[in-house]
Amino acid sequence: MSLVSLSDDAQSFSDERGSLNILFESHGISLKRSHSIKNVFRGMHWQGFPYHQIKLIRVIEGEIIDFIVDMTNFKQGIHSTTLHPSKGWQMVPANYAHGFYTITNCVFEYFCIGDYKEEAEISFSILDFLEKEHGVINPMMSFKDSNNMSFNEVTSKSWK
Q: What is the CB neighbour count within 10 angstroms for residue 154?
């Protein structure tokens, strides 16, 4: 048996919201860490077949509201929960879209099983839900996330 060497090829992306560091990525497994300032929304993102991803997530510092949507059963709606370091690792199954809103400055980790394929990603907005259910108005978002289809548009389609 031989050990696999992990390189120091970490990639980093940053903007006014914070940063994303890809700490490790190989053979369908990746470890990513994001740093986000307070009032940032990242998501909702999901990859369809055959590029499903399972995500293990955790908050290292700070506090977030985490959001998931079952892409195979929209009748279940949008689920949210508050996460902070004491909650430990949480799993996001492959059939769920995922996103989060930062209540405080935050360090967040993703362990992903399955390759990231931007062209297979489906992204949608839950801004109405954020405002109605959590009182969040005008969160900071990426250009991509701020121009997504609405949750209602997503629910009118069939995703596998």
A: 21
CA atoms within 13 A on the CB side of 5: 3
Comparing CA positions, the residue from 20, 11, 105, 101 lying closest to residue 61 is: 105
pLDDT given at position 52: 93
- Please name each of the domains of the chain with its CATH number: 17-153 (2.60.120.10)
Averaged over successive runs of 10 residues, the pLDDT of the chain (160 residues) comes to 55 93 93 97 92 96 97 92 97 96 97 92 93 95 87 76
Phi, psi angle pair for 146, to nearest 5° = -80, -10
pLDDT at 49: 85
Four-residue CA torsion sign, 152, 155, 157, 160:
positive
